[in-house]
Amino acid sequence: MWSTFSTQEEDGRPPGAGGLNPGPAGVKVAMIGSRGGPKRRARTSSTSGGDMSDSQEGKVKLAFFVAVVGIVLTILGVGTEFWVELAPPKSFSSNHTCLVAHYGLWKSCIKSLWVADVDPERESCGPADLPGESNCTFFKFFTTGENAVLFQKTTDKSLGVASGLMAIFSLFFMVMGAVCITMAISKRVPFFLKPASVCFTLSGILIFLLIIVFHQSVLVLLASDHTVPLHHELLWSVSCVGCAGALLITGGILFLLLALPYSPWQRCMPNKNSEN
Question: What global pTM score does this model have?
Answer without folding.
Answer: 0.75
